[in-house]
Each structure stands twice: as C-alpha cells, then as structure tokens.
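Troubleshooting: if your tokenizer reports a length mismatch, compare against these two reference records.
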Amino acid sequence: MAKIKHNNILNTIISVMTSAKESGALHLYADGNYSNGRKLQIDGKELFNFGTTGYLGLEQDARLKQGAIKAIQAYGTEFPMSKSYVSHPLYRELESLVSKIYNNHYVVITKNSTLGHLGVIPSVVDDGDGVILDHQVHWSVQSAVQPLKLRSVPIEMIRHNHLNMLEEKIRQLQSRCNKIWYMADGMYSMFGDYAPINDLIALSKQYRQLYLYFDDVHGMSWKGTNGSGYIMSILKRLPEKVILISTLSKTFGASGAVMICKDKKVQERIKNFGGPLTFSIQLDPAAVGAAIASAKIHLSPEIYQLQQELSDRIAYMDQCIKTTTLPLITDNDSPIFYIGTGMPDTGFNLINRLIAKGFYTNLGIFPAVPIKNTGLRISISRHNLKEDIEHFVAVLSDEYPKALNDTGTSLDRVYSAFGRSLQQSEKFNKSATTLRVVTYNTIKEIPMDFWNKRVGHNSFYDWNGLKTLEEIFTREKTPEHQLQFFYCNVLDQNEKCILSTFFTYGLWKEDMIAPESVSDRIEKERESNPYFRTSYCLCMGSMVTEGKHLFLEKEHKEWKKAFDLLLEYVETLEKKLNPAYIILRDFEKEDTEIKQYLHKKGFIQVTMPEAAIYDSFGWKDRKEYMQSLSKRSRQHFRKDILAFEEDLIIEHKKSVSAEQLLRCYKLYQYVKKQNLGLNTFSYPFNLFTIMNESLQWEFILTYLNDENQILAGVMFCYKNETGIYTPAIIGMDYEYAYKYNIYRQLLFQTIQRANVLNYKRIDFGLTAGFEKRKLGAKIIEKCAYIQAKDNFPMESMEWLRTNE
C-alpha cells in the first residue's frame, strides 16, 4: 500500500467536531435572562445542568458577585496596563491571599491557565533541558511546549500514566539534558482520573534531573487544605522540584490562573519576563474583586463545609449509577463521571434524548478521548440537588438503551470499545434486520465468479490474485510478512449481495501515515530495533494491494444496515485479534455520505495519495496515442520519454532467469529504501518468486542500450482476469533512473503494453499523480478511515513531525 498522506491533526479535529456540531451535541448557545447554576436554558428550554466545571458553585455566590461589582465601581471595567508597569490596586491583596492558600509559597497570577502555561513553560525550561508529556495532558500545556522546539529542546510523549515508559524516556534523555520536565494534569478533565502523584515524586527522588510540572485546574478548590487542589491534598507541601499551575476560575468561581512554586528565583524570572504575562493585559477589576472574595472563603473553615457538601453529592451520584447497568468508565471520588457510549453516533443520539427530557451534560469526543471512547462527561456540582441527581440517573438509565437501539449497537459493544468485558447478563436488543452476514477465512471458499464480479475486478486481488497472496503471506515466517485473511459478504433476503470486501491482519509500521522526515528518524532507530514503533492492524484490503477494496450497493435501501453488520463483524475480529488500528481504505474523498456515516461510527478520515487509472484506449499507434494527450502533455512526452527511446531497450517477459529475478528484486529494494513515502515493510523475495512462476504476472524490463545492457528498471505487472492491467511494483537503479527518466519510461511502456494486450483499464495505484496525469491517466482523490485503540500513536507522530 502506498503511504497515506500526512494529515495535520487539526484538520481531523475540525472534521469530527463539525459532525458533532451538526448533530446538535456541541457549540450550543445558552439563552435566557439569568443563570442560577442548577439550570440553564438552551433554545428556550430549561435544562438541569450536569455539565459545569464550577463544582463548588462559587460562581453564583453573592460575595463573589459583590466583590466583582465593587471592583468595577471603584476601578472601571478594566485596568488597561501591563502588569510589568503597574498592577491593579487589588492585585497585591489577591496575591497575598492566594499565597496563603498554598502555605505561603511563591505565586504568579495570570490571565488564564492557557496564558499561564505560555508564560511559565518557556521561562522555566532552559535550552539544555528536555520535556516529556503525558499524552492526555491538557491541550494548553501541549500548545505552550511548541515554542521550545525552536530552541531545540527535545520533547517526548508517553502513554497516559505509563510510568515504565516515562522511566525509559528519562533514561534516554538524562545523558543530554540538564533537567527533564514531566508535564501532566493532576486530575484529568474527561475521565476524572488522577495522576499517580506519589509514584512521580518517588521517581523525581530517584532521578535527580526529573522535575514535575502539573496542571491542577480541575482539582482546584474541591480538594485539599484551603481548597488548594488535588495535588496539594496528596503532597501537603510543594517540593522544590515541582511547579504547579492552578486556576482562579472554574471551581474557584472567579477568573484567572496561578503559578505556584517554592523557588523565589523562578517566581522572579517569570514575573520579569513571562512572555504573555509581560505584555498582555492583566485581569480586569471584576475578576480580581471576585477572586479576592473567593480566596477569603478558601481561607475560612467554610471551604471544608462546601467540599463536604460536594462530596456527599458525588457519593450519591455514584450510588445511583451503581444501581444501573450504565457503563461507568472510571470509578473514583472526583466530580466527573464518564458514561461510555462507544461510537459518536450513540453519544450524539443520547445527548439529544437527554436535552429533550430536560437535562444537559457534556459529550466527551475526539480529540479529548479516542474517537471510539466517546461518552457522556457528567459533572456534579453543589448546584445539583439529590433529587436532581436521582431523576437524572433514572432518565439516563431509561434513555441509554434507546440510544443504543437507535444506533444499532449494544452494551456489550460499548464495553468492548473501552477494552472491558460486560459482567451483566443483560444485553439490549439491536434493530431487527433481514440481512445476512456470511464470512470466510479464505478466498477458496468463495465462488470465483461471485468474487470477480464484485471486488475482484480491481488491481491484482481478483480470485486468483488473492489465492496467490494467501499462499505467500500465510506461510511466511517473519512477523512482518505473516497475514491473516478475512472475507465478508452481506446478503439481503433475496440473496442479493449488498456488500463484499476482505480484510487482512498484520504488522504495520506506525509511521506509515507520517511524513518522510519522521520515517527517516524512526528508521535510524530500527537499525538496532527493527520492530520499533510497529503495531498490528486490521485493514480493509492489505498493505500489498491498492485499489477499491469494498463493493457496496449504495442504491440498496439497506446499505447502511449492511455496513453496520460489516462493522459488527470487524468488532468481533477486534476482540479476537486486538489490533492497534482498524483501517478502512480507498474511499472517494468527495463521498460525504460515507464520511458522515463513518464519523458517527467512530472513524476519522485521513487523506491518501491520489489514485490513477488509465482507460483512454482505442488508439492504434503511438501517433494516435499522442493525439489523445493535451498539447502540454505531448511536449512532456517528447522531452521526457521519446528523447531517451534510443538509449533504452524494452522487453516484456512472462518470467526471467534466477539471476535476473535477483536483480529485479534488488531494483525493487532500491526504490523501497529510497522512498520513505512508501514506508511499509519490504515484500518477501518469495512474492517475486511466485510472480515469476505465475501466468498472470509479467515483467516490463528496461535495459541500457549499450555494450553492457544493464537492467536499469522493471515494472511488475498483473493481468487481472476481468480485463484490468496493474503495474503493481516498480524497481529502478538510481544510478541511471534520473539520467534516462526510467520511471516515466516504465509508465508509458505499461500503457503501451496494456493496449497491445487489449486491456480495458490500467489501475496505476497511488502516488505520483502528476506524472501519471501527463500520460493521460485520470486522477481520483482517495481517503481512508481509521479507528485507533487510543490517540497516543497519532499524537506522538504529530509531535515527531513538528519536533524537527
């Protein structure tokens, strides 16, 4: 398979979020003339609010409101000066109060946590340092780290809370870094789980270079002495090697953020020159006035009463949920409860059902969670009365199975999406269907004519081609060349085939979807560790084949149900095989109907290289062929191909000698090594041996027309039984490739050979669309849809891409 084009992760996020917005789950507007925290109004409908991050409800406290009002009346709506020159008159009091909350540690007040990270991180991380990120650390931290790349600071990423991986990265960096900063959240905002604080402190004692940087925004106020947050509830006092960022908004009830450290020099360094903290406008008077009022509450015994009231509500929510079959993903004492729905369309459906019943909560969706780990992110606050909680859980428990049924899934499939087994015997019924799924483990079980009329009239995976591939890749010994094959047909009640396709399961290089610069770096590591950054994938088609791997009768009224059944079959394979990725390949990029359907089923779209086909036959000779080209293409043809005709000898052979076959394989390896844009594992030599023995394969050989007659290029071509000619693999000697335009010559010779053999179409496959277009090929934009077990491989590849 050709390399999937690099996709900026932002494009994927926008695409997924757009689907969520269109479903009515995101980007809503509250309306009404007031808000009391317990309820909010959307589109004129009053809803109980289970989506706030103001866990203690302080944003509605009369003392905070009065503090804001008095500050505005005294100082205006803003204090339009940088803090580097003059701080607001109330700032000194706020800084003093916040410092007391944190045992008189040194603090810096910031406009918000995002600007705080942008100001603090580049200030405390020196050029000789390194950074390791938990891959679920908040976006604002990851964004603030970006400028460090310009200073050549090495940045690594580990799986969420994976301390063994963290220790491995520390050992890799310790010989070249003065300090190694590990950056994580105290409490993570989606699942409500915690960082392993004590274990991290132990690591910082074991490794003198390890420093810890925590974002504790979601742990603030509802935990800890003086409401100092989750991390301080564990640490009690801040160690020298820890920097903490917390918030004055969310649970604190006001606005702004705060950096806390034990080293006065760090505080002074940030205050003297902290990027946006130096040049940006400071907190407005209302925010400072409200924050002072909140800080006074935090420093009073009342904070513990408020914490206990919230704790009672959290415990009651937990008690209510555990009387149901709702899939609670994380079980802890945080105010966040995550109820898994698995696929986005189930989440969209459930959100809309709850709104219709008078309840609002948040949807957890990609990129905050893996796309197949979509769910309800329910947050509990002091605003939620116990009767509200009980009513909400009852409604949620009633609507949840309806959402599953509406979207053709089950509780068992939801648990499976989160890597868990369903303990309860109850499973919700799926929608009834008259369709029938028939599956096979070998092409030999499927009638040749049936297959070739549907999937097999493409590329070199007609019935005989797949039989050959099975014989090769099910017998290979090396892990990267071992494939398992799976076939699936969906038939309607009249035995008409609506859908047909095949999948393979095998080892792939994770950087196949990364740019060449990333692959180049990873390949250096593979010189000593050949299976570095590799994962098992379940892929529609295979890494060897290219073309349209799915037959789908979209005119059939039940095509979506047929696709549902295919995905359910894929899930059964996923349970058995446990792949890191599921990849559905070779869809037309402009098929918005498929795109919307698959986004809701938990797949994200990635762009593939352009596909090319040639079907403009009917010309009798070269002159007529040239006339079929555009004027500009004819000029290219004369300059790039005809000009070298006398320098080359072209041969077509059904088989070659053993010596020639070795030379051909070496030419293939030259191309493979040269082009990291096609960064799959090399094909085994046995594949080429079988090609040489098969009547359906032939070789287009290009020799230098001189006394040595060196074989400089070869095209390995497959003759599909349904009339398709496929130049599947190419080999070239780069000592001559550019001088004689070997690649372009082989493309033309392929067209000429197919015409002589009376084939109706050439499947040129992917990549090099510009070159193929010049020879008359039609270009088709292609895409794939990927579902990953978690976001780590994608996000870590993005960091490698940008960390050049």
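Reference record two:
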Amino acid sequence: MELLTPHLSSVRVPTATSKVYKDECVFSFDNPETETGLYVGLKSFFGLGRDYVEKHFHKTGEAVYLHIRRVRHEVSSPPQGDGPEKKITRLAIGVDGGFDPEAMSKKFEFEDSYNIVVLPGFSTIPWPNTELPQIVKSSIEGILEAPSASKVAEMEALTGTWDGEARVVSQFAHNLPQLDNGKKIPPSGWQCEKCDKTDNLWLNLTDGSILCGRRFYDGSGGNNHAIEHYNATGHPLAVKLGTITKEGKGDVFSYKEDDMVEDPNLVQHLAHWGINIANMEKTEKSMVELELELNQKSNEWSALQESDGQLKPIYGPGYTGMTNMGNSCYLNSVMQMVFSIPDFIQRYYHDAELFFNNVVGDPCEDFNAQMAKLAVGLHSGKYSVPPPAGSPVDADPPGICPLMFKALVGRGHPEFSTKKQQDAQEFFLHILTLLERNSKNKVNPGDCFKFKVEEKFQCSASKKVKYLTRSDVLLPLIIPMDAAINKDEVAAYETKKLEAEKTGKKLLANTIVRPKINFLSCLELFTQSEVINNFYSSAVNANVTARKTTRLATFPDYLCIQLKKFMLREDWVPIKLDVSIEMPDILDISSLRGTGPQSDEELLPEPKVQPPAPVMDEGVLAQLADMGFPPEACKRAVFFTHNSGLEAATAWIMEHITDSDFSDPFVPPGTESSHFTPNAEALASIVAMGFTQHQATKALKATDNNVERAMDWIFSHQDELDNVTSPPPPEFRDGDGRYKLVAFVSHMGTSTMVGHYVVHILKNGQWVIFNDNKVALSERPPKDLGYMYLYERL
C-alpha cells in the first residue's frame, strides 16, 4: 500500500458533474474488452489504452489507475419456443425494433475484473480490497457507479429530441373537440365513406368520419380521402382502424402537426364513438410495418449490400469497420469515404501524435484530436484482424465504435445530435464546416473538394452580361426522368405490376425494372441555361428577363457529386426516385469549364442608383412561414411567382426545396454586385456580436453572405483578421477535368430519415464494401444505385 501513499493527494472522487470515460480510451478505440483492457485515471477519470497510459503519465504525472478487463462469453441460445421471435418493426439498423447487427441467436454474458495499477512500474493491487485508503476506495466506487461520459453525452444530446421512434404527444390530445353527432363506430365492417376501400382506413377523432389514407408511391394505399377531409374541416387527429390494441395504443396521425403522434387520451376519444378497446384486436399493419414492406418489395437492399453473394471479409490497415451506434450508418459511410483520401490520412493519421500532444483540456472536446483518433482507428489495422481460429464462420469483426466523435460533432445540432437517421450529404457538408472552423491557419484537408462556380447572366434587353462566382464543395445534379433509355420496358413493368395488384399476386424483387438514365443526361441538364424573370438590368434600369448559365471556374482534386434522388410529391409526401444511373468509371467534365468574360462580350455596368426593393405580398410570406419554410426561401417563392398567391408560391417551393441556395439570404437577380456588397441585415447581426465592420464584411464575402458560415469563418481565421497585412487565402486548386470513380455512398429506403447507408471504396484496384462493421471485397459494386459519388482527378 505504500505505493499509493505519494499519490493520495491527487486522487479524486467523481461528483455528479464529473465525466468518467470508462467505456473507451480517449485517444484510441481500446476498451475494457481489448486484450490489454482499459486504464481509468483516479484523478482525470480519462480512460486510456495500454499504448497511451504511459504517455499520459509522463505528460501529466497521473500515476494511479483502475484497470478494467472485460471478457465476453457466448451463451447458448434458448430452445425455440421459449418466447416470440423478435419482430423487425423499423427500417433501421442497430436500434430497438430494427435489424440487429448481432446474429439474433447469439447471446453474451460479460465477466469484469478490476485491479489498481500504479505507474511507472505497472504495480498491481487487486480490487476489491478492504486495506485500501478510504480516498482510493471512494474514488473507485464512484468510477464504477458513475454513468459513463459517453452515455451522459448521449442523454444530453437527446434532451428535447426524439429518436425517430418515440412519438411526441400531440398538442391537440388534451383539448380535442369531439362532436355529438350521434355516430357510433361498429367493431368491424368498416368502409371509406367516399369510396369502396375497406383497408387503410382512418377514423377522424373529432367527427367520427371513416376515410381512406394516402396513396403510397407504388400505387397502393388509399385514395387520399382522409387528408382531403382534413383540408376541408381542419379536424386534426385520426387513428388508423385495425391498429388499435387492448392496451389503448394505435397509429395516430396529426394532420396539423404533419407527423405520427401520441394520444394519451386515445381510450376516452375512442369511447366517445362507442369503441370499447377491450374488444379491439390489431388487424391492420402499422405505418412502420407498411414502410418496411414497401421497401422490401424492392431488391435495393439486397443489391446495395450485396447480400445475395458470399462476400470475402478483408482485414488490415484501411479495412476497419465502424459499429452502427443506432442509425449512425450515415456518419460511418461519410467518414469512411473522406478518410480514404490521402489529404485526410496525411493530416490526421500521420500527425496524430502531434494533435494528441497539443490537446489542452479534455481530449474528447477537441475536434482535431477526435479526428486523429478516428484516423488511427481506421488506418492502423489494430482493430481489423481476422477472428481467432475456431470462431463461427459468420462472426463479424467488432470494428470501432466512434461514440465520442459522434457526440462531439453532433453537439448542439438539431439533427446530428439525435439518434434519427440523417442525410449523408448534409452530414458531409457539416463535417466540412467543422474542418474549416478547426483548421485556422493550417491546411484544411477539406479544400480538396472546393471549387469555384461561375454564373453568367445575359440581359435580354441589352445583351450585356454579368459574371458572378461562388465557392462550393459538392456538385448536386437533378435527375432528368424523361431521359430514361428504357421507357417501354418501364411502362410494361408498371402495367404488369398493376395487374398483379388487382389479382393479389406479388412480383419477385428480381423482376423490378427501373428507369435507366445515362449520367451524361444529368450533366447536360446542369449545363442548360435557364430563364430568370424579374432580373434587374443596370443597362436599362428595369426588370427584364435574363438567361443564366452555370459552369465550373475551377476543377477540384476530388469532385463529389450528389444525385438529387429525394423530392416532394405533389401531395407533399417525400419520395425517393428509384432509378438506375449509368455512372462512368472515367469522367471528363472539361465541357463544364467556365470561360469568364469574353472579348466580344460587354459587361453590365455597376448600377448608379440602388435598385428598388421588390414588393412582396406580406400575407403570403406569413402563410409560407407558418408552414415552416425558411424566411429567405419564402421571399424567393413570392418573388419568382410574381406575387401571384399562396398556391403558386407553394408550388415553387416544392419544385426548388432541394436547391443548394434554398435558405440562403435572398438577393433579387441582377442586384448582386461583382464588387461584393455585404447583406445589410447579416452585417448588422455580426457587428452586434462585437466584431468590427471590416471583420464582418470580410467574413461575409468569404461565405457568400451566409451569417452562420461567416461566424464559423471568423473563428477559424482569427489570426488573418487580426493581421491586416496577412496574405490573401490560397486560390482554389485547379487542374485537368478527367476523373476516375473511387467511392460511392448508397442509400436504401424511401427517404433520408429512414433506411440504411453503405459505402463502396476503390482500394488497391479492387472495390471494397463498408457496411458498418462488415468490410468485404465487393463482387458486384452497384454503381448505378448510388446517392453520392466521389471522383479523383487522374
């Protein structure tokens, strides 16, 4: 015990606010199940793997640790019939009700052992031990009883959010008006009051009407009579008949809140219509069951995961999987993709120790340290080794579980802090924003994606032109469905599908015929010029029409392309285009090169007077805002529809909701200045935060007048702002326009909020599939079904 005496003054007891990292090393992905276990400091409460505990000791002097070693034992599966098989009810992986990444038949129990370790000699004292000093016993007991820091961070992130399955209580549940119109609902024999539908029926809880639900994207479902009834009456809540259980549960939809909700008073609301839940049996599929069934009709899941083949696992540096932490496959796929790029490997893998040594404070709060930790986890090979001899043939490698990274990059974000499925493209942009914020004057590896976009406007009245440029990191392309090269086959398949539905037959998944579109058609649509109405021409001092053409002024080292597969249907239902795009392995975008002003072109003059502000219909703006659309998008809609009313503005929004500048500050076309003029409101907002007008203007110029991005820019360029003589930032990288396909992220499911993501990456001349923790050689990479594509310059 005398080993502990010199260190007793530094031992601490965790409090309610202490962060105890006992799940994972703060610098690596070692954990209690790692062969060398985990060392938790009795002063810092940092968890440290064997590779880092000595370094931490030499840097800080912390000498006393609780060593945790956990051994997993597989338990035999219980005999069949001991309980119901777990039913899949959610189109997700790694969350309750979803697909279990562990084999369903496998069950494990864990055996933990503890020792106190004193450095530098790694002297060991067993625990529990009654002879220990009280401060040491209290510290260890506190560590063992405290929730892990990762669990605390997860709970904090989920505060005020929902995880995609739990439904919020409807605002109408406690004061729902119910009419006394004499209606009583029979226990069976229901039919839609406006058509002959006898399934997918919804009972309006206010007036007792029974009407059919929405029509699904595949033609099944109802005839939209329930939503039409809401539009006519405003009665907000309806319950799906056939989903009501004896426990008082059922699928309740709020039309006003546009979501599935909880109705804690459902029993009373049903009793008003004479429904006794004691007699109710669930006979209809719930909404999540229907969604799952709709997706399983397609062979998309099988094709994208290559689940119909016997894929060969691959191990070693660069082939490490990532555990699905409950709908985190979007994060896993994006980070695997970016860390396949040499710029990221060089910055974070080769310089990892530099980042670790320069951490001030908690390493789990340091973005660069956590990026370096992720890089080492993926590329060291330490966590990607073949299973031991005698392991089950279907045993999956554990991979790494980036809990700390997810908690850090999602903190404070309304979407990425939750357990809901997210859009991989949005997360990709989020990571690039964080990179810019944390790079300061260092080289930002995200610059490999950055390119300059050139927009040319030609005034129809004067024929004079105007050139504007902006930066971007992603090339979003609209899919021209009318360019399908197999329209006859698709039409024949749709006819066959309708006939099958009438007869109750099911078509085999492998008989699905998707529209096939050549990728060049997507590029051609991008290069087509568009007519801009209400363009202010400084040549004639009036609003005219103009023709806008978009090109790329520079070609990045890595070109990331997003195919815009997600859209809103006419009835506002989000859908995903089920198409096959013929993506080239070698891509030449030389035809997209911008030319800049030509010698035979005359530029529009800078306006001598301030153009008049456009007149906006304030009533329509307010109505659009009430629907939840961003204020700047509402301005765009009203402007481009010439104040022609709510219906036209709403239609414009539905058509343009996926535009990259949808919610950016609105500047009427033609009034943009090539000699940058900061948006007045944006400038005032930043100056009000304590920054100078010069600093605010410089930040807004670098971020296209986007306040949020400008604030990030200020914090990541503080030295540049303080030094007025600092050199200008480096120009965009540029080069040849020939590229090769090196990775693609695929999504399976009907919308970005459900489903699953995987990524295929070209490594050493062979395609590899990264499906969360499963990493294997790809047999048939489904290049035609991707969502995001990464091309590398040749």
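Descriptive notes for reference record two:
- The domain at 166-296 is CATH 3.30.40.10 (Herpes Virus-1).
- The chain has five domains: 5-146, 166-296, 308-387+397-448+739-782, 451-560+573-656, 684-722.
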